[in-house]
Amino acid sequence: MDNLNYGIIGNCRSAALISKEGSLDWCCLPEFDSTSIFAKLLDEKKGGSFEIIPQGECTIHQEYFQNTAILVTRFTQGDDVFEVHDFMPRHHKMNGKYMAPPEIIRFVKHISGKPKVVIKYDPKLEYAMGETKHFIKKDFIASITHEMKYDTLFLYTSVHKQSILEGKAITLEGDEYFLICYHEKILKPTTEKMALELERTKVYWLDWVDKTPTYKKFNNEIVRSAITLKMLTYDKTGAVLAAATTSLPETIGEVRNWDYRFCWIRDASMVIKVVSELGHKNSAKRFLQFIIDLMPDKDEKLQIMYGINKEKNLTEISLDHLDGYKGSKPVRIGNAAYMQKQNDIYGILMDVIYEQIRSFSNDIENVEELWSITKGIVWIVSNHWQEPDKGIWEFRGEDRHFTFSKVLCWVALDRAIKVAKMFGKTHKIEKWTGLEQQIKEDIHKNAWNDDINAFVQSYGSRHLDASVLLMESYGFIHARDPKFVNTVKAIEEGLSNDGLLYRYKNEDDFGLPSSSFTICTFWFINSLFKIGEEEKALEHFERLLGYSNHLGLFSEDIDFKTKRLLGNMPQAYSHLALIECAINFSRKESDERILESIS
């Protein structure tokens, strides 16, 4: 079965995907959302790749170097053994900042024998829209395109350059390197320098993981997910990407293909909340600054998403010359959803602001700005909470009164009141409490359906929706409240398919969804745990972990029948929910051990 058996490497500036066979099939340089230099992922013939192909049958094993973002692919053919260590350099500079150049290093480590390989170096710049030509220069191979737009790429290597371009077999008798650079190097690279870059990058990741708490259960899964979330953060602005790819389909052969290389306020806020809990407060502070920079005017409405460099216009276009992943057209860049109105983002943002002030009250700059944003959010919510919107799933049809959006409007008021208490703003507390109660009563009255015996997708609807499971997480309702318990059971009966959850089962703009949205299953597991069905939750969780790819990575969706991964990957949303579930199970075990020691 085909699956998204890809590993991600990255340095918080860009990222690349490398297949289980060691083929570099996706990368955009110099940044996450730049045009692609390799896009075999989206068109096997035209997209371009960088492959190190052993001659003859061999065994391939791939894993991450433990607690790092360095991907190791080992090729074994009898006594002929070599490894490819793939990474994007990232390490500390003397001034406290980080080196994170737009570069990929493929360090070939000779283990034994005399392996023979052919190098297929085939970058296709600018999404392969025009021809890319290669020129051998004294120190590098230059790849150039200028039909649609001028762009260049440089390959430095210890291997014979002519043999690379001619596809001749190369015998490995010692360590070699390939350095793919967006910019021409001033100082000539060497194998020794590349080995040093490998060690420095290794140290960076080991240090980063060392700042993360150790958990009793599922620690490896938590660490891998945390590293993945870190790789999806953009250092320069503090933005967090939804995923590293575009147009990987939710269903093979269909048109639900979107560009996820942007910062959704909702996804990013949830990621930051989890990353803060793991002790990485600098990421949280940078994201808060990202938001502050986006809201210069007190009455400016927040978009649901932005470009990673704070771009507000994300015009969506199709690249019709590309066939798409497994023939799934169209390939899209940009995302028209940026124009949608989704009322939930204010509550999600307010929740993050509250958590940061609560956790780091003595260490947060811009408290005055945060108070201004808090007041601004309440003003916007008070004026717009009664309006319909597109909802969390970005329905492109008519607006509705989605339950999740209403709950998050309540969250905005609840957290704003808590912030006001921390700042001693009593006059605001009195003013805002009445509105908070009004929203809560409105939800209980209109989102509850007596016939279904559950909270439903939108006011007046009979449809179930996995997003209402987050009511408990956000403190709107207690886990043991009969209304919530009944909602969890109704969702299990109505939306579960062989242990995997639909987001919803009503038809949307593109028909009935035929794959499971991975995060929804994690939400369901969390809800089972909270209502007291902990053994059942653990059983579901362990089964779901088994659906990850060979490196423990999750994409956006899972096919109900085949269990293959679908959608953009790796998906930040999926990994943050994995961490939340794993921490709950780990804490439960710790609590039980404490009780046993007391008794």
From TrEMBL:
The keyword RNA-binding does not apply. This is Glycoside hydrolase family 15 protein. One of its GO terms (molecular function) is hydrolase activity, hydrolyzing O-glycosyl compounds. GO terms for biological process: carbohydrate metabolic process. PANTHER family: GLUCAN 1,4-ALPHA-GLUCOSIDASE, TREHALASE. It comes from Flagellimonas pelagia. InterPro entries: 6-hairpin_glycosidase_sf, 6hp_glycosidase-like_sf, GH15-like, Trehalase-like_N. It holds the Pfam family Glyco_hydro_15. The keyword RNA-binding does not apply. Residues 8-134 form the Trehalase-like N-terminal domain. Gene3D superfamilies: 1.50.10.10. Keywords: Hydrolase. Residues 219-582 form the GH15-like domain.
